[in-house]
Amino acid sequence: MWASPLKLLFLHHISIKNRLLIYFFSLVLFPSTIIVTSLYQQSNSTLSDNMTDSINRSMQMMELNVLETLEQIDDITTKIYTSNTLQSILSSDHPGDDIGVVNEMTQLNTLLDSYSLSNQGRTKFTLNLYLMNRPAYNLFPSIPHVYSVESVQNLQWYQSMSYKSRFKVLGLYQGNSELGSPSQYSIRTAKQIYELDNFAVPYAGLITADVNIIDFGKMLESLKPSQHSEVYILNSAGEIMIGPRMDEVNQPFMVPDLFTPSKPEQVQESVFQSRTLSVQGQQMLIASRSIPQLDWKLVTVSPLRDLNGKLLSFRNVMIIVIMISLIIAFIFALFLSNDITNPIRKFIRAINKTDSDLLNVSIEYRRNDEFLYLFQRFNKMMRQMKELVNQLYVTEAKKKKAELEALQAQINPHFLYNTLDSINWMALKKKVPEISLMVTSLSDFFRLSLNKGRSIILLEDELSQVQAYLTIQQIRLSNKLTFNIEVPAQLLQLITVKLILQPLIENAIIHGFNETKGRGHITISAALQQDILVLRVTDDGSGTEAVVHKISELLSLSGEETASFGIRNVNTRIKQWFGEQYGLHYEANTTQGLTATIQIPAKTMANVISNDNPADHEEHIL
To answer: How far apart are the C-alpha atoms of 191 and 279, rounded to whole Å?
Structure first.
């Protein structure tokens, strides 16, 4: 089952030149590909890690800037809260007339303006002051930034302030902006204020600071990872508070629940996360960093083509280097394969002649290498073959005839028939049918074995001889042996060499069934595979792969050792009669025992000349 894949793997149908070219080219290509791929993956991993670390550091700087801005606002509102002007107004009685109210509001407005950072090159924000029990402030809306608490106490942002919340970042706030920006969105913070000279007054009001989200965005834009990156700040609900486009503000982020931890224990590990996604058909690296103090999330969306610039350049350089290396390797492989295979092609041209001219071949070769020695030995071998070819045929033919006569002279008939016939009558007279059956089977066995001296017989006669032998063995083994013969009727008139099945059966009984206490079953079968007659003797004895290996070694021996002479006899006679491509081999069964397989040409008696000398009519059998 592995023959075809192995032939394809080793390119058996391709010339040596092309094989050498492919092998050498593969030796260069495969290691180079593995090395370059590993290097690229390692570089990709390193650059990706560096890229992620760089984005993380950028987002850390953004986080620090955001927290620093809010700390500055906290410091400013604290200074206003503790200023003498504000504390003096809080500890004084409320103005009794409108002029006093206006003066007080103007004084407070001046105080707020004095702490404005609008002209100091920092993030711009707007300060507003809300005081308790100042309803008169509502009568003068022309004075900005100073209001009564009652004017906002029903608003949602005000109600979200807890009693003990000294300073709180309220988040996104939409209102009238006075910073000259078309946007009305800002980030609002609030600080509660108290009268420091009178602790009996629990609550005096609050100071708010509104940071324009455009200014916030500019601060973050200066720290973005790449030119085309976009920076977002999301609230706890995943809604955009700050982003590159105003129409996205207060809207859900493009990928909701992108970095939501799937398990509670992951919350502490999710300060920084990154993920690659396709956004509008473009690969983006989306990174997120939590700001736990504010319950906010910083998110950057960066095109991978911007971040992977170095990696892409490195990949292009590697591709160019690989292509150049492969071209050089191919040229060198082509030159090397030609140099090695030229002598081989010369040798093939020399021997690619008719059989009558082959013995006259002489190869000339000028290089002083291994091929010179090979061709010299070949020329010498051809001269010797030419000298021996005539006498070799005659000698070999005589030798084959002598071997066949020696191999087949194993049974001497003498007076066996008369003796066996007498034994049969005595058994019938004594009423011992088992002996009669055994003697009759033995007589049939010898008669079919001798077959009037013919070596080539019908398969039908060979099977009759085998059946007689098995009947004798059944009686001898007290019916511990069972057998069946499975041969299609249309194959019975094909020819075979006589006495090729009985030695295999005898071998199975003696060596296969001894370890199973003499019990066993033998199946003789035959099948036609194209022009090949395949005979099989299958047993369920104790044979294993080790036994198959030992038998194969014995069959390959050419001496006259007595070990396994019967099966070696069978193999030798098949090859002498039909050719070296036919013969006997063993294989282990998947369950138990061995199968002996014989392959001979499928011929009828009409193809065979009556003379048994294989040297005389070999062409009729082969």
So the answer is: 41
- Per-residue pLDDT tens over the stretch 27-78: 777 777 788 778 777 777 777 777 788 888 888 888 888 888 888 888 888 8
- Predicted TM-score of the model (pTM): 0.47
Return contacts of 408-416, CB within 8 angstroms, 24+ apart: 408/455, 408/499, 408/573, 411/446, 411/449, 411/450, 413/446, 413/450, 416/443, 416/446
d(CA 37, CA 289): 33
Which residue, 77, 67, 68, 123, is CA-closest to 294? Answer: 67
Selection from 74, 295, 63, 112 nearest residue 189 by Cα: 74
Query: For 112-135, what is each residue's pLDDT tens digit?
Result: 888 875 445 456 788 899 998 888
C-alpha 137/C-alpha 405 separation (Å) is: 140
Pairing of strands 205-212, 583-588: unpaired
Note the pLDDT of residue 271: 80
| Token pair for 587 | 């294989």
Cβ neighbours for 444, distance < 8 A, ≥ 6 positions apart = 464, 465, 468
Buried/exposed code over 24-37 (b: 16+ C-beta within 10 A; e: otherwise): bbeebbeeeeeebe
Read off the pLDDT band of 404 (50, 70, 90): low
Quick one: tokens of 120? 């100091």
How far apart, in whole angstroms, are the C-alpha atoms of residue 69 and residue 120? 13
Q: Which helix (H) or strand (E) holds 65?
A: helix 16-82
